[in-house]
């Protein structure tokens, strides 16, 4: 579905209640489905990716009902999960695929799983390598590097694993396999990635401890159901944080946005670049902090984004690249090679789309060099069927000279189904 967007003719003002966090919504479904008892999930993200996780567990025999943005999960414990009658379809969702491989590897039956063309090209061997060390058996073409895969459930044994990639999905897959492996499983990472799995598993009664970059989980027969309140997704809020920062005179408030330290790299970068951000009404539920963010434009300067901050803002790099085109000086992004294996190669997609609008960006192996400030003309933009690339182009249209025409906006429903309603409310 093509979409034409006109530039904004005035500054942006108003409030947005951003939808629920995608990472936390996935985990709430998974842990609720594996727990004993009823789990209610409030402010669940009704996006396509999270619905893939819901459907996967329904196929495994779990009763899950949705009423508005509330989920009701009737869990009967990990041992009650049943062999699915059909193949599991993970669509476009890397999180569903990788975490489910961790769950399915230790179950006493065989599951067949596949994804859409984008997910089929994303590496699964990064998850299968440690899982195979635990005793997992998987069959697929290319020795199980990519979906489709058949997971032949096996009794698993604990391992000590050091992550070779900075990936919360790999860490989570190993911890979830560790949940039904004999012994204590330990995962060590080199930079802290999002820790929602650790935080939420603890709330569901698992024996899990983190100490700096190392997390240890002990095998657990059953999790205990607990209600989850999902904060707003900072990765979705990011689009409006940047919108307010690039349209002169704007001021926006984003309500109940998740503020977990492993996710707030974008706030650090925005503040460094000269954007004014205030946080009010801070609260914490289930170990996840959230609050209201008010953002106001300031004079933007370039920054260097590298090292340990990268996993704390990995999904926000496309929209940060747009922001950097409006900052005085050269912004350098390094250590972000993971962007090459997302829904599309995001280094290449961002560079092509923004240079097509008139920006001056050089792609590097592991990031981008962005020369600012450039005015953006607008024009046609490919979305590469990547929700974050499509939303980046939509936000860019606020400041382009001409209209922006995005070839296909259907991918936005993956993480932010109400994106255009929210954009129209403040525009
Ligand atoms: O664990 C998660 O929920 C996610 C982890 C990140 O992926 P990687 O683990 O591949 O870095 C992120 O990009 C993705 O959107 C969600
Ligand atoms: C990379 C993303 O998600 P996933 O890996 O779950 O497909 C994303 O949402 O930007």
Fill in the keyword field for this structure:
four-stranded mixed sheet; binds shikimate-3-phosphate; five-stranded mixed sheet; globular; UDP-n-acetylglucosamine1-carboxyvinyl-transferase, Chain; alpha/beta; 427 residues
Q: What is the CA–CA distance across the termini?
A: 21 Å
Shape: globular
Please give the domain count. Answer: 2
Instruction: Estimate percent helicity.
Output: 25-40%
Enzyme class: transferase
Binding site for phosphoenolpyruvate: 22, 94, 122, 169, 346, 388
GO molecular function: 3-phosphoshikimate 1-carboxyvinyltransferase activity
Subcellular location: Cytoplasm
Short recap of the structure:
With 427 residues, this protein is of the alpha/beta class.
Structure, described:
There is one protein chain. The chain is α/β, with parallel strands linked by helices. It folds into two domains: 3-20 and 231-426, UDP-n-acetylglucosamine1-carboxyvinyl-transferase, Chain; 22-229, Enolpyruvate transferase domain (UDP-n-acetylglucosamine1-carboxyvinyl-transferase, Chain, Alpha-beta prism). The chain has 13 helices and 26 strands. Strands 3, 4, 5, 16 and 17 form a five-stranded mixed beta sheet that branches. A four-stranded mixed beta sheet has the order 2-18-20-19. Strand 21 (304-305), helix 10 (317-325) and strand 22 form a beta-alpha-beta unit. Helix 1 packs parallel to helix 7 (196-203) and helix 3 runs parallel beside helix 6 (168-179). The radius of gyration is 21 Å and the shape is globular. Shikimate-3-phosphate (S3P) binds at residues 23, 94-95, 167-169, 172, 194, 314-315, 338. Phosphoenolpyruvate binds next to helix 3.
